[in-house]
Amino acid sequence: LERNREWLMDELGEHGALHFKGFRLPATSAGLRDFCSALPLVPCADPLASVGVRSLLSAPDGVYEAVNAESLSKTFIGLHNDVTYKLAAPFAAFACFQPAELGGGDFLLADGRAVLATLPAGVLATLRERLLSVRVASIPFGWLADLPLPPSLLAALRGAALSVVGAILSAKVPLDLAVAFSADERTLQILEQPKAPVNRHPASGAPTFFSSLHSQSAHLQRRRAGGGAAGGTFEGVDVFYGDLSPLEPALLEAVDEAVGRHVVRVPMATGEVVLLDSYQALHGRDCFEGRREHGVVWLDEERGERLTCAALSSKSCVRQIV
User: Fold this and answer.
1) CB 55 within 8 A of CB 67
2) How far from chain centre, in Å, is Cα 49?
3) What is the structure's pLDDT at 229?
4) DSSP labels for 75-97?
5) What is the percent of the chain where pLDDT is above 90?
6) Which residues touch 285 (CB under 8 Å, ≥6 apart)?
7) What is the CA radius of gyration of the chain?
8) Cβ(279)–Cβ(210) under 8 Å?
9) How far apart are CA 64 and CA 74, in angstroms?
10) Which residues contact 184 (CB under 8 A, 6 or more apart)?
11) Does 234 score more than 80 pLDDT?
12) Interatomic CA distance for residues 53 and 178, integer angstroms
C-alpha cells in the first residue's frame, strides 16, 4: 500500500471509491488504523460524535460505528454525503469486521457527478433556485400549542424556545444549524442551513450532486419501508425547500430515479475496505439481518500535501484493489 500510495490516490480521484479485497490487516479496528496509515491521509474526528449521533467503535483507533444497531437494521440508508459545507472530512475508509449474520447490509455507492448529469434539467433548476433545507431532528411542541393561552403569549413562549434551543446548538454543535417551528407550530425543527444540492469538488472543481436528500426525505423513506413500517424510517428527519415548503412527490421520485440508475452494490466480507472521496461519491447501506459490525475512519490530507482529483470520468464509480 505504502509503495503504491500515490497511484492509489490517483485511482481514487478518477473513480471516487476504491474497494480493497484480500487484505488481512483491516479485519480489526487497530488493523484498519494501520491500513489507513499507509496512505497519504490522516484520521480526523467526527464532529457528529460530540452530539451523540455517531459513537466510537474503538476510541484509541479513531474508528466510528457505521450504523450497526439492530434497531436500524430494517432501515435502508439512502445515498448521501457525510461532509457538509461547514465541516468536512474529505475521505472515509469503511471496513467490514463482521458481515451481517443473516445476510444483507450491502454497502452502496453512487458517483455524484453521474447523478448530477442524469437529473432532469427542470428538476435541477428548481433545486438550485429554491435550495434545500434538511431537518436533522425535531422536538414535539404540541403541548404548548394546546395550552389555553393568549396568542401573543404563545408566540412569546415559542420565541423563547427558539432562542434557548438555538443557543444550545450554537454552543454544542459545530454545524451552523438553524431552528424554526413547523407551519402548524406543533414541532420545533432543527435544520441545516438552506443550500443547493450541487457542489464543486475542492480539488478538481468538477460539479457533483452533493446532498442527503435521497436518505433524509421522509417521503422516500416511507416508500422504501412499504408505507412507513416501524423501524424502516428515521423519525423526525425530512427535507424541504429552502423556505420550508414541502417538496413535491414527483420531484422526489425524479431524484430517486436518477440516484438509483447509478447505485453500485458492494457486498463486503471481513477485512474488506471501501475508501471513498466523500465529495465525489455518495454512499448508503442496504437493510440487514442479525448482528453486524462495520466501522469507519474519517480521513484528511497529510499536512503539506495537495492531492489532485481527476476530472469527470465515464469509468465506474468503484475500482477494486485485490
Assistant:
1) no
2) 14
3) 46
4) --EEEE----SSS---EEEEEEE
5) 63
6) 66, 67, 76, 77, 105, 106, 107, 108
7) 20
8) yes
9) 20
10) 145
11) no
12) 17
Helix (H, G, I), strand (E, B) or coil at 225: coil
Nearest to residue 61, comparing CAs of 25, 23, 107, 90? 25
In angstroms, rounded to a whole number, what is the distance separating the alpha carbons of residues 57 and 45? 13
What is the band of 47 on the pLDDT scale with cuts at 50, 70, 90?
low
pLDDT in tens, 198-233: 988 888 888 999 999 999 999 999 988 875 544 455
- pLDDT bin (cut points 50, 70, 90) of residue 87 is low
The percent of residues in the chain predicted with pLDDT above 70, rounded, is 87
Candidates 270, 165, 259; CA nearest to 208 is: 259
Reading phi first (left if > 0) and then psi (alpha if -120 to 50, else beta), residue 54 is in: beta
Q: What's the rounded Cα separation, in Å, for the pair 288 and 304?
A: 41
Enclosing H/E stretch for 284: strand 281-285
Amino acid found at 41: L
Query: What's the CA gap between 295 and 255, in Å, rounded?
Result: 28
d(CA 129, CA 234): 27
| Residue in this structure with the C-alpha cell 443547493, named with its chain if needed | 196
Q: What torsion, rounded to 10 degrees, do the Cα atoms 191, 178, 187, 284 define?
A: 10
Rounded Cα gap, residues 17 and 116, in angstroms:
17
Question: Which phi and psi (to 5°) does residue 292 adopt?
Answer: -145, 140
Average of per-residue pLDDT across 115-143: 94
More reliable by pLDDT, 317 or 287: 287
Residue 42 makes CB contacts below 8 A (sequence gap 6+) with 299, 300, 301, 302, 303
Question: What is the band of 304 on the pLDDT scale with cuts at 50, 70, 90?
Answer: very low
Q: How many helices (H) and strands (E) does the chain have?
A: 9, 18
CB 209, CB 111: distance < 8 Å: no
> Over 70: is that where the pLDDT of 86 sits?
no
Q: Are 1 and 321 in contact (CB under 8 A)?
A: no
Task: Tell me what the pLDDT averaged over the chain comes to.
Answer: 86
| pLDDT of amino acid 319 | 55
State the pTM of this model: 0.86
